[in-house]
Design goal:
Shape: globular
Number of domains: 1
Structural class: mainly beta
CATH topology: Jelly Rolls
Number of helices: 0
CATH architecture: Sandwich
Mean pLDDT: 91
Helix content: under 10%
Order of helices and strands: EEEEEEEEEEEEE
Number of strands: 13
Largest sheet: 7 strands, antiparallel
Low-confidence stretches: 1-11
Distance between the termini: 20 Å
CATH class: Mainly Beta
Length: about 180
């Protein structure tokens, strides 16, 4: 499901609905100045530090694709971290059809990854948003701040071998939102 982010977080809410928690979404993504390409073996992500105890229900990422991605999927998961990098398996995950992500950098949109029952996050603990796809040739692009990232709770991370080994892109930050109860 694609959710186009409204101008204020309160417009997305209903009583008892998840609310915006941790995020780095300056100017609603209008000034995103770089992208990170996700493919079968190239995984991307962002670490973040939970601002309080909450159950994460979904996350939103600013995304686009290079071409028609019919039949492909994108999975976003939350993982624990050690030393600022993802470790272990998925704590929760959500999947979207890649064909539902807009084509072209000029058409990027906030994409919602629903985690179902979610996962209980703990205040001041760092977690990782991990993005992967079954796409092998074209790029699934996640948008980020390359020139002046200011998110203090984490950083961009990436893997060139399907999440076996991770590295930090310490001078970059994904544009992201976590929503929870």
């Amino acid at each position: 499901m694609i959710w186009i982010k409204s101008s204020t977080a309160s417009e997305n809410l209903k009583p008892g609905a998840p609310s915006l928690q941790d995020h780095y979404n300056f100017d609603d993504g209008a000034n995103a100045d770089g992208n990170a390409a996700v493919k079968l073996t190239r995984w991307e992500g962002e670490t973040f530090t939970a601002n309080k105890n909450y159950t994460i229900k979904f996350t939103k990422l600013l995304m686009s694709t290079d071409d028609d991605e019919t039949g492909k999927t994108v999975t976003v998961s939350i993982r624990a971290t050690s030393g600022g990098l993802p470790t272990g398996g998925d704590l929760c995950s959500g999947v979207v059809n890649a064909e539902d992500i807009p084509i072209g950098a000029g058409n990027k949109a906030w994409i919602n990854f629903d985690f179902g029952a979610g996962y209980a996050l703990s205040n001041a603990i760092q977690y990782a948003i991990c993005v992967r796809s079954d796409e092998t040739t074209d790029d699934i692009d996640c948008w980020l701040d390359l020139s002046s990232p200011t998110y203090a709770g984490g950083t961009r991370i990436f893997s060139n071998n399907s999440g076996v080994d991770w590295s930090s892109g310490a001078s970059h930050d994904f544009l992201f939102e976590t929503w929870g109860l």
